[in-house]
Amino acid sequence: MADSAQDQDREQGQEGAGGQAPQAAPPPGPRQRSVRVTMAALMIAVMLAMLDNMIIGTAMPTIVGELGGLDHLSWVVTAYALTTAASTPLWGKLGDMYGRKGTFLASIVIFLAGSVTSGAAQSMEQLIGFRALQGLGAGGLMVGAMSIMADLVSPRERGKYMGMMAGVMSVAMIGGPLVGGTLTDHLGWRWAFYINVPLGGVALAAVITLLHLPKKPGGGRIDYVGAALLTTAITAAVLVTSWGGTEYDWGSGVILGLIALAVATLAGFLVVERRVAEPIMPLGIFRNRNFSLITLIGFLLGFVMFGAMTFLPLFQQAVQGASATNSGLLLLPVLLPMMLVSVVTGRATTANGKYRMYPIIGGALIPVGLFLIAQMDVGTSRLTSGLYMAVLGAGMGFLMQLTMLIAQNSVEMKDVGVASSSTTLFRTIGGSFGVALMGTIFADRVKGSMTDQLGAEGAGATGGAGAQLDAASLAKLPDAVRNAYEHAVADGTNAVFLLGAVLTVVVFVAAWFIEEVPLRGGEAPAEAPAGTGSAPDLAADSGTVADTGSVTDSGMDACVGAGTESGAGAPPAGTRESVSIEK
Q1: CATH number listed for the domain at residues 32-222+280-511
Q2: Residue 564's pLDDT band (boundaries 50, 70, 90)?
Q3: What is the pTM of this model?
Q4: Where are the domains of the chain?
């Protein structure tokens, strides 16, 4: 292809030398406007997963009051996060094998099926099971959108679009609690799930109509053994954090057996991934220092984000007396700074190609914000708690989307799909562990505090650990019981956020070891720092299709114009047909 392109260039040059007008350059590929429209379709799909996470937080107290007790609360979130984590690498592999568009559409359909059945659940057990189905689809939404974005846009331009993606995700985070609270107060909590159906229909239509990616030959094999071992290890470990000290003693046979199962299956997974021809998670990628650091940071960010969005609404409704709708409004101090900082840092990264300082700033702000939130009690004003949450939101804004960009830019193009799915996987695993462990600590602290204040008999007035968490139900309790319960919930909230503050100090430390690998863009990247394992200069492969079906950076820069009007530097005809977008 390269030889024929060079011959064509020579022929055009000879014609120009002979006085004839040179042939017009081939069309520069999809217009920037078309790329933006396609990105909007991807963002709608991502909004489904993010909106669902945020909606469930403000609806949870009402759900717990209707379907079951506090002991099951964390599993509504954990079941979703578990199947999301387990399915994420599978979706990434299926996209590499059979094409990203088809697998992306399938993930939307499965997600919508889980949404409808979750809304129809008649018991907490049913809801947990249907949330697991919903999470199975959600696993393909994030990794699919990020991988398709990597196919369409170079890393240098990707910072801008990831900033937009962060903005959309933040809008979902902001709108989710508000929508969830409003729906719960006026239509019932089931509509917190049914609302996904019209949004999903729009996403399906947009992706089917606008996005055209190359079809895959269908070769390759899925590492089912590795996937099963990884899923078992994650599930066993989450069960340990969820059941240990609550359902079973830490020294019980069940907990010790689960620990042994988690260790054995994780060891088996590592052995299989080293030997299998097509591993679901190539272990060699972890030799890349930036990638390894980002997966660690992503794990801890997931731990904090899922936990904060689950337990802050509980504090606001049970302690501050907010309704479901108002608790959504009270989350704005954490969500608005997150959105604004994400968009600004994304655009700044695109403008100057620098990103290393942002994880350091974010890593400093997050533990400070969590520590401040851990100081809130029944006497803390909403203004004060809002200021504390704003610090956390700003810190998360510096990191949420840049982690994906840094991971993708640090690996070779053929590993972008793996990098995307692995980054999403570890963030989701962190969320699973975070909600499970925080839920265990929260329930234990609430139960212990109630018993200390009222005795075992008085604590039973709220259903043990507390069956009702919404403000309306708490208002019906005797004053002494209600006051004790408010203090107990505050104690539980303090404990979980203090844990988050301690753990996220690691984020700040890890951020200092990230190296500034130049972002790939229209020009050949400078040589990467030694030891980073970053992608080599791919200019020689301009416009060719990588193993994952991605278009390499300099070729795609020409396809999207690399931010210019002329699209100068476009490769010869025939090299940009790998990816097309309906105009």
Answers
A1: 1.20.1250.20
A2: very low
A3: 0.67
A4: 32-222+280-511, 223-279
